[in-house]
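Priority: medium. Attachment 1 of 2:
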């Protein structure tokens, strides 16, 4: 854009100071962290904030780079493990039918000894259920507690809860 065009548009040339550049790069890296796993770009972005602080106090470019590098390394070694433990612990919650495995439910309709089929209620939902050990169908009466061993389609595969537990 020429100087005359800038005058016509009433546009003043924007001159970025070094701390603003550091800040913009840091924000850009933190935004890019959304697309990359591992919290690495966020550590580099926080390192840029260290460089921005040094630049704000009129430090030389060498000192800005050193401050940025030291800040990035400190966040990488101290903040990153903490963030990974908090956000990416690996202990993800089970959902859907996988969350039902091992849970206890109450028999709402006694199991038929020939087919092994009955009904159970878990978390307020009534499910079709099949007894794993059909020979115990006479003990699987309404109101007893069973344990969910497997889920096949819309049928819970259950076994009687032992009376000792």
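Attachment 2 of 2:
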């Amino acid at each position: 854009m020429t100087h005359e065009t800038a005058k016509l548009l009433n546009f003043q040339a924007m001159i970025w100071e070094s701390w603003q550049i550091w800040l913009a790069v840091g924000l850009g890296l933190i935004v890019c962290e959304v697309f990359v796993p591992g919290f690495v770009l966020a550590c580099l972005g926080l390192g840029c904030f260290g460089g921005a602080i040094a630049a704000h106090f009129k430090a030389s470019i060498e000192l800005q780079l050193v401050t940025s590098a030291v800040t990035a390394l400190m966040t990488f070694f101290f903040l990153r493990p903490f963030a990974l433990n908090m956000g990416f612990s690996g202990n993800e919650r089970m959902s859907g039918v996988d969350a039902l495995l091992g849970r206890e439910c109450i028999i709402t309709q006694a199991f038929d000894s020939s087919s092994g089929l009955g009904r159970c209620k878990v978390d307020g939902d009534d499910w079709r259920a099949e007894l794993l050990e059909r020979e115990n169908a006479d003990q699987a009466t309404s109101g007893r507690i069973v344990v969910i061993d497997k889920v096949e389609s819309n049928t819970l595969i259950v076994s009687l809860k032992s009376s000792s537990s």
